[in-house]
Design brief:
By secondary structure, the chain is of the alpha/beta class. 54% of the residues lie in helices and 10% in strands. α7 links the parallel β6 and β7. The structure holds adenosine-5'-triphosphate.
Length: 251
């Protein structure tokens, strides 16, 4: 039992959720390591959504609203931490949900499917192996994608990603919105829009933003996307990290 007045309460609760998800077969062991890397960066960005991340969230919301076939790609970490919010975001943005895993086993797909269904998902793609096709340029099991989802999507939201797949998706002409706490990862540098924030904060904010922007003219939304510069935004997140280190040094 974690006490609410523990200074690292929120972080410990997330850890507990991850460990339980691992035990339930939702998460691969490597997912726990990825979470640890994320925690370290979260510490450095101050464990809150920065103004820089908010700009990326606005541009990402506009891109989702402009999309013809948006897809949210879900892995074990995302299912363990934010399945309710993923389902809500898919409803407000008309995005499909597709399970896409590096450590893909039928048992893990089934466990994630159950979590998403419990959160209210009606349709989940990427489940039945025999309906999947190969995505050119992705040689891991993440290359197995559904024809009506990731294969033909124009805009893809990837909460937690590996750099190889981001590169292949962007190379094939897709607009990729990544959520990654590490502004130095290949994913962050390659994605069209990177939200440097924890998925547990970023997805609820994306839901809010999509609802706020949904009645805007397409031209205004397009301007929001065009005015966003991913490299500049990543530099903004790096500055936040540097200044948190400098503050510590000057103590
Ligand atoms: P790349 O291949 O893109 O260079 P990587 O090898 O670090 O990155 P993975 O280990 O597959 O990629 O992915 C984990 C990434 O997800 C890390 O960059 C980590 O910072 C990030 N991450 C982990 N947990 C969270 C979270 N809760 N919210 C946002 N990002 C997270």
């Amino acid at each position: 039992m974690i006490s609410e007045d523990h200074p690292r309460y929120k972080s410990l609760i997330l850890r507990e959720r991850m460990v339980n998800a691992y035990k339930a077969g939702i998460l691969a062991d490597a997912g726990l390591i990825a979470h640890g890397r994320g925690e370290a960066y979260d510490y450095l960005i101050g464990e809150k959504t920065s103004e820089t991340a908010k700009k990326a969230i606005e541009a990402g919301s506009a891109a989702l609203l402009l999309a013809k076939n948006p897809v949210i790609s879900v892995n074990g970490n995302a299912a363990a931490l934010v399945s309710d919010d993923i389902v809500k975001l898919s409803c407000v943005s008309n995005a499909k949900i597709e399970i896409n895993l590096f450590y893909r086993t039928p048992e893990r797909v089934d466990a994630i499917l159950k979590v998403l269904k419990k959160s209210g998902a009606e349709e989940v793609l990427g489940v039945d192996d025999k309906n999947l096709e190969h995505f050119k340029g992705i040689n891991s099991p993440r290359g197995s994608v559904s024809p009506e989802g990731l294969l033909t999507a124009d805009v893809i939201l990837v909460p937690l990603e590996d750099g190889d797949r981001t590169e292949a998706l962007v190379k094939s002409g897709k607009f990729v919105i990544a959520i990654d706490l590490n502004p130095l990862s290949r994913t962050s540098k390659t994605a069209s829009i990177t939200i440097v924030d924890n998925i547990v904060r970023a997805i609820p904010l994306l839901i809010e933003k999509v609802e706020e922007l949904k009645n805007l003219d397409e031209k205004i939304l397009q301007k929001m996307v065009d005015n966003f510069n991913n490299t500049d935004n990543l530099k903004g997140s790096l500055k936040i990290i540097l200044s948190s280190i400098e503050k510590l040094e000057s103590k």
